[in-house]
Design goal:
By secondary structure, the chain is mostly helical. The protein has one domain. Helix content is 66%, strand content 0%. It is built from twelve helices and no strands. It is globular and about 50 Å long. The protein starts with a helix and ends with a helix.
């Protein structure tokens, strides 16, 4: 039995699968298989990373570029794998190429480019600076030099988290927003996205070890609304989602909001998480009001 036929057999009982009816599928169903294969792929590699990291004595895993780093990178590509399998089994082989072609345009418009850097940059700076007015010491940037920031942004877009958006916002988001609306659809995706990251809290030395999972989920919900808006304002140019996610992660290194120390108060973290969530809520409310005016 071929791999493709085996995958088809596994998902044949998927109650959300309506073979040969893409339009009906888009209007009424959500491809559960995307989430199944996204989680299976990611949690397999991250689970191995959890086991291997237990003897790790380093303070930080990511800069080591060892086996844990490789496993965590492979796991981060789960949403891409989930999207490919879902597209292949629902729409056919030729649709995969068409899907990836939709990411090629970078003509977002200057307002979208400005919004990405302005919103995420200011959120990072505010979260980084404000605690200093209350006696907190400044946290040093994670980057060795400000001059590598442009290169670091590119790395984050393609290798440091931005690539997740191929699956999250590029593929599954339209299904959720179509079925549940902007608020509930974004909320569901934000929660699932946060839960998907859960194994990273058990990798010794990972950044997530020092975060509140609840706070992280709040941030993911805010990001979900913001990234969705970015894509919409760019004229549904999906690569804008990758850019927004990559820029967010790049600013997190330039203006760190996480203290890589256990059992300390993470003031910057909570400022950042709450600001991100607030921005996301304001954006989705604005979009809904705008849609309501358009419809009337």
């Amino acid at each position: 039995m071929s791999v493709n036929n085996y995958i088809r057999r596994i998902i044949s009982k998927d109650t959300f699968y309506v073979k040969g009816f893409r339009k009906d599928y888009m209007e009424n169903k959500v491809p559960i298989r995307f989430f199944v294969f996204t989680f299976l792929w990611s949690w397999l590699f991250w689970g191995i990373a959890v086991l291997l990291s237990q003897g790790n004595t380093q303070d930080v895993v990511f800069p080591s570029f060892g086996i844990e780093f490789a496993l965590m990178f492979l796991g981060a590509n789960g949403p891409i794998i989930g999207a490919i399998i879902s597209i292949r089994t629902i729409e056919g082989k030729g649709s995969i190429k068409k899907f990836f072609k939709s990411f090629l345009s970078i003509k977002f418009g200057w307002k979208v480019w400005l919004s990405i850097f302005l919103v995420l940059g200011l959120t990072g700076i505010i979260s980084w600076i404000i605690p200093e007015f209350f006696g907190e010491e400044r946290v040093s940037t994670f980057l060795p030099s400000i001059y590598i920031f442009p290169i670091y942004i590119i790395m984050m877009i393609f290798l440091g988290g931005g690539q997740e958006e191929i699956g999250w916002r590029g593929y599954i988001m339209p299904y959720l927003e179509k079925k549940y609306g902007l608020i509930i659809g974004g909320l569901i995706l934000g929660i699932i996205w946060a839960i998907w990251h859960l194994p990273l809290w058990f990798v010794v030395g990972s950044t997530q070890k020092y975060m509140s999972f609840l706070g992280f989920m709040i941030m993911c919900i805010g990001y979900s609304y913001f990234f969705s808006w970015v894509i919409k304002e760019s004229g549904n140019r999906l690569f804008s989602g990758l850019v927004a996610h990559g820029v967010a992660n790049a600013f997190a290194a330039l203006f760190p909001y996480i203290l890589m120390v256990e059992n300390v108060k993470q003031f910057r973290m909570w400022i950042y998480f709450i600001l991100t969530f607030t921005i996301g809520i304001l954006i989705v409310i604005t979009r809904m009001c705008k849609n309501r005016k358009t419809s009337t």
